[in-house]
Amino acid sequence: MDPIPLLADKRILLGVTGGIAAYKACALASRLTQAGAQVDGVMTEAATHFVGPLTLQALTGRPVYTDLWTAPGEGLPTHIAHVGLAHAADLLVIAPATANTLAKLAHGIADNLLTTLALAATCPMLLAPAMDAGMWSHPATQANVAMLRERGAHFAGPVLGRMASGLVGEGRMMEPDRILGHIRWVLGREGPLRGRRVVVTAGPTREFLDPVRFLSNPSSGRQGYALAQAALDRGAAVALISGPTPLPTPVGAERVDVTTAEEMCEAVLAAVEGADTLLMAAAVADYRPAEAAAQKIKKGKEEPTLRLARTPDVLAAVAEQRAASGFPRVVVGFAAESQDLVENARAKLTAKRLDLIVANDITAPDAGFGAATNRVTILDPGGGVEELGLMSKAAVAEAVLDRVVRLLHQKPLV
Ligand code: CTP
Predict the structure, then answer these.
(1) Known catalytic residue: 374?
(2) Is the CB of 286 under 6 A from ligand 1?
(3) pTM for this prediction
(4) Which atom of ligand 1 is nearest to 311's Cα?
């Protein structure tokens, strides 16, 4: 897994309490560690019946704390060290959080190391409950949850699904990937784009010939979704205007689904009013069938001819609106090129009045449509040309957002 700059050197206290979902806490610990975070595991006694402390220790490469009285390694006995641990943390995550632990947290009970740490900690707290659905919906648990929310605790789940009992209900712990999204959301709030509104477009559009056939392109939406995540990581409020893609919505993004270029244009023009930035990564179709049949077109003896009509150029429409309103204040376009990359991209940068253009060579097998990686060149209106090497789409998104932060730096919050 790619390092996540937001998590680099962040200290995360990962509390694990006694439920079968404890095994999934191991996956979460592994992801966080690989992403660059420093993870200190804290397990309740009940949790150790489900997974061994050694498992968590091996995955995090750090001591795991299990009780108030045992010193792991050379350190101070934990009952003294706990205040230091709690104060040093950037985030306390408890996954899974049982009904019992939620009750203790709500009432300030500190009868084990984890609940003691929670009471001493001043950092944000994210809870991923896991329990039987009946326990989750019980008025006692719901009252405890309401009390914790009131005090600023964040919740990730529980979700609807199969629980340990074999029953299906709302009580299953959220999957580690989604919990990671919540962790990023909580940690990103104070970032350099705090208070900024960023609109991102992603994915292909579809232009229908009849109810079952359309013109489209192989865009996966990955680059756009990575941009949305990188903007969220920096604290922005993100609207993600998306063409059809099976990708999950990044936690915290407000997603607007569209199908055609026309719908995308309408959604973008509405979203960019008052916005700080537009990142136009969508692969918008330039043509649509001139007529769309209401019923499925039947095959006949003749070979049909397809007549095409132009779709709106979204960036051109944005440039016009921006000339009148001043919004969005920074516009980044993308260019998909199969030849003369820099010249073609520069022409688009000028014609579409962009602040940056991110050009990629779609003929390279490891870049562009559908690939997990990209190889882009970033151009600016001052003549700057920056060729970035082969990197993941997440890393490209980081590079683009770093430049957006710099461009917005001069522009005050509205
Ligand atoms: N774009 C747009 N509206 C369209 C087509 C493209 O806003 N109808 C945007 C894309 O989202 C991208 C930029 O314009 O940010 C460049 O897209 P690209 O497909 O590379 O270029 P086109 O303008 O379509 O030009 P051409 O197809 O001739 O290369």
Answers:
(1) no
(2) yes
(3) 0.94
(4) 8
Which atom of ligand 1 lies closest to the CA of 357?
15
Closest CA to 117 of 141, 145, 88: 88
What CATH number should be reported for the domain holding residue 348? 3.40.50.10300
Give the range of the structural domain holding residue 352, as residue numbers without chain letter: 193-409
* 361: phi then psi, degrees, rounded to nearest 5: -85, 105
Q: In angstroms, what is the span from residue 284 Cα to ligand 1's centroid? A: 6
Residue carrying the six token digits 């230091």 = 84
Sign of torsion over alpha carbons 306, 307, 312, 314: positive
In this structure, are 389 and 241 located in the same domain? Answer: yes
CA of 335 to the centre of ligand 1 (A): 7
Same domain, yes or no: 199 and 180: no
Interatomic CA distance for residues 270 and 70, integer angstroms: 59
- Quick check: bond before 158 cis, omega within 30? yes
C-beta of 282 in contact with ligand 1 (< 6 A): yes
Give the total number of structural domains in the chain: 2
Give 71-84 pLDDT, tens digit per residue. 555 555 555 667 77
Q: What's the pLDDT tens digit per position in 5-21?
A: 999 989 999 999 999 99
DSSP-H helix ranges across 6-112: 22-34, 53-60, 78-88, 99-107
For ligand 1, is residue 334 a contact (CB within 6 Å)?
yes
